[in-house]
Write a structure and sequence with these properties.
This protein is an alpha+beta fold and 60 residues long. 37% of the residues lie in helices and 17% in strands. It has a two-stranded parallel sheet with strand order 1-3. The longest helix has 8 residues, at 10-17.
Length: 60
Amino acid sequence: MTIKLPPENIFDTILKVFGKERKVIVPDGIDEIYKEKGPYVQIKTRREGFLKALFRKKKS
């Protein structure tokens, strides 16, 4: 299984200035897809919304 991460953009750079990161969101149902299609599956993920990441508490 290959998981493709979206490239970083200007919003990720802005969040780094504030000391924060955006989470990567993996789609639901990966287990069923893996069982159905086998090990040669590519999963496309997406990043958390900019504002949601901006207002989340900092990591400790």
